[in-house]
Amino acid sequence: MTAHVTCLGCGCACDDIEIVTSDSRIVGATNACELGVRWFGDGRVPTRSAMGGRPAKRHEVLDAAAALLRQALRPLVYLAPDLSCEAQQEAVGIADALGAALDSATSLTAMPSILAAQERGRAGATLGEIRRRADVVALWNVDPLVRYPRYLSRYLPDSPGRTFIRVDVDAIDEVPTLTALAAIVAGQVRQESGAGAAWDRARDLAPRLLAGRYVTIVADAESDDASPRDPGRAGALISLAQALNGPTRAALSLLRGGGNRSGGDAVMTWQTGYPAAVDFSRGHPRYQPHDGTAASRFARGDVDALLVVGAAAQIPPALLAPMSRVPRVLIGPAVSDSALEAGQPPAMLIDTGIAGIHDGGTVMRMDDVPLPLRPSLAGPPSTAGIVRALADLIRPGRQAAAR
Amino acid sequence: MTALRITGGAVHDPANGIDGDVRDICIDAGRIVAEVPKSATTIDARGMVVMPGGVDMHSHVASGSVNLARRLLPEEHDRDPMRAPALADGELSRSGTGGTVPSTFTTGYRYAGLGYTTVFDAAVAPLTARLSHAEFDDTPIVDGGFFVLMGNDEYLLRQIDAGERDRAREYAAWLLGAAGGYAIKIVNPGGIERWKQGARDRTDLDTAIGATSVTPRKILETLVDAGNALGLPHAAHIHCNNLGVPGNVATTVGSMRAVAGRRAHFTHLQFHSYAAAAGKGGGWRSGARDVVEYVNAHPEVSGDVGQVMFGAATTITADSPVEYMLHKSSGRKWINVDLELETGCGIVPHMYQGKAAVSALQWVVGLELFLLSADPWQMVLSTDHPNGGSFLSYPELIRLLMDRAYRDEQLKRVNQKWLAGSALADGIAREYTLNEIAIVTRAGPARLLGLRAKGHLGAGADADVTVYVPDADRSKMFATPRYVVKGGTLVVEEGQLRRAPAGRRLHVRPAYDNAVTRDLKRFFDDHSTVSFENYPVGTLRDAPAAIDGERGAGR
């Protein structure tokens, strides 16, 4: 049994999981939620390496991959989920060496909240702080149980002094309601001034929020394809949380998905200064959050070679078709079973371990608290190790430089 | 790492009593040695100035808060891109971005390019220590370490409330090792916890923290005593209550008196040395004289200045209530993050402008701390990067210290509103000598940090050496060293960055009484969202620093 295992099923990164293995399979994941149990699975993953549509030795794949990427004029390095920060560090280094574009799953999911926070800052807290202090909790258009099953039980359990407010607002009314609320909270307007449903709702909510000594607003930062959102939503949520810090204390808790997405944002930030959508083509990082994301590059036909690092199966669906049409290298957990394995030309691929099941290292919880990984199974080679090997082929002069 | 001889330079090695004597510095296997064979590579330093590598004892370069600040500032990074430097022999290098909060690789290259070879991050929440280590792993050349935030730590406050000072000390010992940190840091003792609780009034030395018997005074006493009892290489590193508040000089001197007779370091004193003007209208006045008077009379106390430099800065601090006030007054974007059980984090970009009364007063207060302090070993250089200004402004600061005519010229240009009666406005003739600069930028910080192999050029020291070309413009001289050697590797040659070896991690691992961990395990189970077992960062690649006495056994 392996105890204190960190689960990457969602951004909660619960680190109290006990994994029981038998015969090189996971047979139990104590404390894990349903989503977590699914994420751990039985821990069996393929260990293939292939190119040209047939099996090949890893070193052959790496040689060919390095040649492909070095010759490319418009390479893209893409960080998919289920990577340790250590693997992400290596992958960003490859993008730098290649003068490539660099992006991650964040650009199609949590980007609006990142951009809004770059404009305004934010008022936040780590999850334990919320657990300790929150007396008024507004669940803003989100039921955490669906995509973050243990969020409430671990970080905001019911307690005598805690009031939950479930706010369900049509997408179209979200920003007007938040804006009205922030204005009332900040004392910028007389409460009776605004008319309409948004103002009515804001007038109802404002005193309930202001009754709290430590207000927590919980909202989902990941996109939900079912209900397209106003691009101003994240900024309005931030403004409300900041405004609440006048009359009382408040934190906005933005929910993030699994697979160490927050870690990818953090690694890219410390290595380049930017959290996603980076372009190294001029020999230094440039931030292109609007027209330099993977999606916009593929839309322009601006990618001639692709390196995916991470769990290809978790790449946002919109990217799969264009990705499967360019020459590509796939390094990550079960990439040989992913939709990107098929397509023309055939992929060069190496299956590696899943961060947290086979690979060790560090990951970040949705609140940027770093946690260690405790692998419970031996398995395919580590992603960080394979990516490092590729990096060494791409930059042969590499020495003991950064590490 | 070949043997190296730096020959013919005027050596400033104040720790060894050498003040500009022409002599050779010999290097072998990463250390300073008495002699090397004639076959050793020779660097001709005739006519040049040779000093130990710079040591920055208070900076913000590798922490969760710093990384949040980096993410906040894409516009700064966009204006200051940095290509991967072309290193010798095709050695790997990395591109990055600058501004007041540069990316990690750029941070390492630029510190080294300035002749600095050791840098400490002054404020790391132990909860996020793994992240600091990862950032330092990607910060080349410089040796790095960090201080561990303890002044608002819930477990520690509970021990103080219960009168369990011994357990508080054992906890501090455990926490340093668990985080892989180097020293105890106290930021606004108790005041951050009060901000989390919703308090908005001042936190003074005897203000009760919530409903407990804990006060900032007790926190200071407990942690200063803990640091000394554990024999840590660096004293408790203290950021006082009421940062940035006019009249706070009383809090600052009061805090020094609270730990009188005990080794303690008070940081970025500039931000804590403001008097309040009497009479209607109020306003600010310099309180530097009061602080210096105390420090000059108490050799057990040390400080760094935290000089403000005009231009862009980014304020990053665990002292989150201060950032709330700054955001309210400046309207700039603002990050607040409350960190569970430990501390806070606040970030606001800032612009210090000579024409603004507050900025001008802050600039004057910092210079007065430098110029009125009797002993440079006691009051060393910092800008609290990037809070008072970027580390890239150190050469300009050195010019202000060394060149009275230049300083007086600058003084005339700033807002005079609150400067009347200040020592600087009255005229200070003092000009720092090269030896004094060597003290406040390397020998002094190294001694205060207890880094026996840093900050000097005696046999056995780490071979961290910087060679400057003298220039009447001291800013120019110190901005572009001709040679920099780090751990025996020539990293800057003819003013160009040529090599970028990995830096080492500087940390301590004092022994502790195991009983504390049993109690802690229960505390974690009840209050933490991180498993006790997942909290410590584990074994680091570099060995911990030596600690004298019984705590030095290490674990």
What does this structure look like?
With 403 residues, chain A is an alpha/beta fold. Chain A has two domains: 44-108 and 259-394, Rossmann fold, CATH 3.40.50.740; 111-255, Dimethylsulfoxide Reductase, domain 2 (3-Layer(aba) Sandwich). In chain A, 34% of the residues lie in helices and 22% in strands. Chain A has 14 helices and 19 strands. Chain A has helices at 34-40, 58-71, 85-98, 111-120, 127-133, 144-147, 151-155, 171-185, 197-210, 233-244, 261-272, 294-299, 317-323, 383-394; strands spanning 2-5, 17-22, 25-30, 49-51, 54-55, 75-79, 101-104, 121-125, 136-140, 163-167, 214-220, 249-255, 278-279, 286-287, 305-309, 328-333, 348-352, 361-364, 370-373. Chain A is globular. The two termini of chain A are 33 Å apart. Chain B is of the alpha/beta class. Chain B has one domain: TIM Barrel, CATH 3.20.20. Chain B has 18 helices and 24 strands. In chain B, the strands form five sheets. In chain B, strands 1, 2, 3, 4, 5, 21, 22, 23 and 24 form a nine-stranded mixed β-sheet that branches. An eight-stranded parallel β-sheet of chain B has the order 6-9-10-11-12-13-16-20. Chain B has a three-stranded antiparallel β-sheet with strand order 17-19-18, with helices on both faces. In chain B, strand 12 (237-239), helix 9 and strand 13 form a beta-alpha-beta unit. In chain B, helix 5 (154-161) runs antiparallel to helix 6 (165-179) and helix 10 (288-297) runs parallel beside helix 12. The longest helix of chain B is centred in the middle third of the chain and has 16 residues, at 357-372. The model of chain B has no long low-confidence stretch (mean pLDDT 97). At the A-B interface, helix 3, helix 4, strand 8, helix 5 and helix 11 of A face helix 1, helix 2, strand 7, strand 8 and helix 4 of B.
